[in-house]
Amino acid sequence: MLDAYERLGLAPGAETREIRKAYARELKKIDQENDSAGFQALREAYEMALHSVGRDTQPAPEPSAAAATQAAPIGDPPDQQAYAAWAECQSLVEQSSTIDEQVWTQALQRMTASDLLVNLDARLWFEAIIVTVLSQGWRPGHESLFAAAVEVFQWEGSPHRLMQFRQGGALLSRALTEKHLLSGLEPQERASIRAAIGRIRDPRPPTAFDLEQYGYPLSRLHQLFPALASITVDANAFHHWREARTAQPIISGPTETSSSPSVTRVLIWLLMIGLVIAAAMPLFKPMYGGRSENVAAPDIPVTKERLWEIGSRVAYQSKPGQKNVIFVDYEVFLDADRTFLGMNTKHRSCDKDFDEAVARAIRETRAFPLDTVSVYRARFSLAPPGAKRSTGDARLANDLPSGTIMLPVERSRSD
Fold this sequence. Notes:
The protein is an alpha+beta fold. Helix content is 50%, strand content 7%.
């Protein structure tokens, strides 16, 4: 019996309430998915300690059991306990003068250690409530709640944990992936997107200058990181900004006065200066051997030769049962050094092995030139066995998206 109290970190003779709190505290330290033995040992210690008290002989909390607290008496359903815990959590946060990630983290940790959530099913309900709140659209403070929940519930350490919450969990899982992809963008573009997020959260109506400065970064946010945008930006505000930018796309210049030149005159002078510089650029090419390294070059797309090179390393062989052309489509992200950062699946084929083989070849691709785009599409297809040409029957690929690379049919399993 002393071993049971020792496992819970308690002195012999502890009260039922103390045993429950200790169990909740120790439960947080166990990875229930990967340490079933540790969880079972903790559960046995909990049951033995409760049995020794003689006041409560119920087993360790199961999904159908109920916790014993003043806020949720014995017999209350787990969902009621979870909603009570969420209400108390919000109350704790509202008492703080500044609501940030640290405040949410402390509130979540306090609730997960409380008697309200000793029941395992109640804890799961509590987590599900937070997933639902975050997935239903951004509200002020949700970005801090999201960051705190990631830490407290260890969503990054257990990638499959969120998937048990269905659509809401899948959305947050994608948002986590996109958050890492955003961190891998060029510092300048990353900073512009984050600045745009901060401005659009401001309830003030956008000025013409705001629309010009933040309109494009916001479009990039919704284009490249739609899941992350849905939980960090108010959808109504974004639509309002987009409509305002369409209606007033040009920055309003200063009012012309007798003491300052007109905007038109300034633009004419700038145009003339640009034409002079453009005309003089060829004179400097022989001196510097072409483009100066200090001048930023426009991003160039990934060449078809590089895509073919990726395809040549796809270690896969078409299966005898394949009847039609299969293809997979990935959106690939490159970091500042133009090495692989991550990718989103835009279209899956009916063959998981083929998709994984293509993804592996993309991940193992060598770095691209620094002036390459930071995001590109990689589409690869494979014709069924018996296609007339080694590169596949062109008639079978008529419905494939433009830019799809048709891999040869006769392939070895490893290149």
